Predict the structure.
Amino acid sequence: MDTADEKNFELKPFELLLDQKTISRRIAELGREITGAYQNKNPVLLGVLKGCVVFLADLMRHIKLPLEIEFVSAASYRKGIKPEEEVSFESSGHIPLKDRHVLVVEGVVDSGRTVSTILKHVNKMEPASIEIVTLIDKPASHRTKLNIAYKGFAVGNEFVIGFGLDNTQKYRNLPFIGKVIDND
Ligand code: IMP
Ligand code: MG
């Protein structure tokens, strides 16, 4: 889909925020940075399902190193009457992470609770190092202190879709990032 198609997308509860070329250029840069920083480290890319899938697939092809991939899923839910959401963690866990250089790969970091929960669990596994990679960061929404080593783009408080990111499970297949303008 080229830029003209992006403008003509039929159902349009969103507007274009980041086009395909901009995204792929940035992912290539992140891949080069990670390639430089992880020489001889055989990193494990730990993708956070499901939002990571498109980003991870592109990013891993720009990392010119031996690497492995693994996935975790994290779901947030409200616990009792507490206003704060809790985050649960689940891993397919085939690759032991002890003494490994782990890159947690996220589609979007919003409050930061999901990625913090993942860091907490992975840290218990005693990795050699752990860093966060996210395609989209919403720094103004963080509710926890985070050090994001690699980020594609920082955006404001808008809700974004496409490139793996969903709105009620839809739109993950859009090849660009849109900003929701009608959330019905
Ligand atoms: P957290 O607040 O950083 O823990 O993010 C929780 C989850 O909310 C993310 O993993 C996404 O699934 C979802 N999320 C937050 N902001 C957006 C967005 O703008 N678009 C799509 N999903 C989002
Ligand atoms: Mg979601």
In short: The first strand starts at residue 14 and ends at 18.
